[in-house]
Fold this sequence. Notes:
The structure is a single chain. By secondary structure, the chain is α/β, with parallel strands linked by helices. The protein is built from ten helices and 18 strands. Helix 1 runs parallel beside helix 3 (92-103), helix 8 (324-336) crosses helix 9 and helix 8 (324-336) crosses helix 10 (359-365). 48% of the residues are buried.
Amino acid sequence: MDAPVVVVGGGPVGSTLGLLIPDSLVLDRAHFPRDKVCGEGLMPAGAEVLRRVGVDLAGAGSPRIRGVRYRLPGGESVSSDFAEGCGYGTRRLRLDALLASQARVRMGVAVSAMRVHPDRVELGTSLGPLTTLCVIGADGLRSTISALMGWRQPSPGGARYAMTGHIATTALLEDIEVTLLGEVETYLAPTGEGEALFAVLGARGAFRTGSQTVLDAYRHWLRCSRPDMGSAPMLDKLKGAGPFGVRPRLVADGRVFLAGDAAGFLDPLTGDAMTAGLQQAVALSGFLAADPPSAASRYRRFWAVQWRRRRLVSRLALALSSSQGLGDRAVRGLQRRPLALQRLMTVNQGLAGLSHLGPRDWAALLGASLW
């Protein structure tokens, strides 16, 4: 064997798998540092995974994130701190390079073919042929491994997209800010000293109207959500992402596994994708270490439970954000009971089940009151 485990994809999830699985080989077709579209907000549960593998985000200059704030167009808002401590703003340009250096990722290596045998997996790569006991595809939304296995599925109708960029700002940002604007939502997160990610999320036709350029539309939504940042200098080119709400037909079978966005991506609005992927890395590495023959079935069960919880939270967030009236009522309900938002964030990280939310919490999310 060239390596007992080959991980394809050297982003946060792939590199973390490389740090968790002894003697694994991590490949990525890109050369780092590289930028990549991402929400770039890491929740406390995800930060804890990286701390366990020896990654010091604060020492690397990642800004702390206290919690989440939901805003209405007029400036009215509700916020709550994470109950579990702080999260971090994680600019992928720096995070990927940091993790890849610790995991010793082989860069510039593309996978083009794969053959699964009863006792091994053979890969065709730009480095040459490789033989391994198992392969983990952590290679993103358009996973090569998923495609080679025939597991990729088309996105459903009504898919959502994002346009993202980084802006220069001196504003003190301690929360991830989500502004509900009816047809779109915007997402603002600190990513480093003097910089922030600003993203616009919605259906493909909702971003711009008439003769607006993409940049004009982006500036319009920035002014709508944060008038004080409307003229902030851009630090990079705008990027697009999507469609969201996709998942593969399978996430594990025999000697092949998928993790991170390759194992399914719901919507950036909940901000949980990186944390969920890191939790998948911890679970999968444990299953492989404990009993490799049963790892696929155990991982499928873990993923199914995680996906059901993530999907429910995502659908709730999208339902509240898709209607200005529902969004307004939810924000005002949560102003009366901020604890409900804090509990929802704990559920969103996978640290508690839906039973963590009581009747008064659900009522607050729907803009009602239970006394």
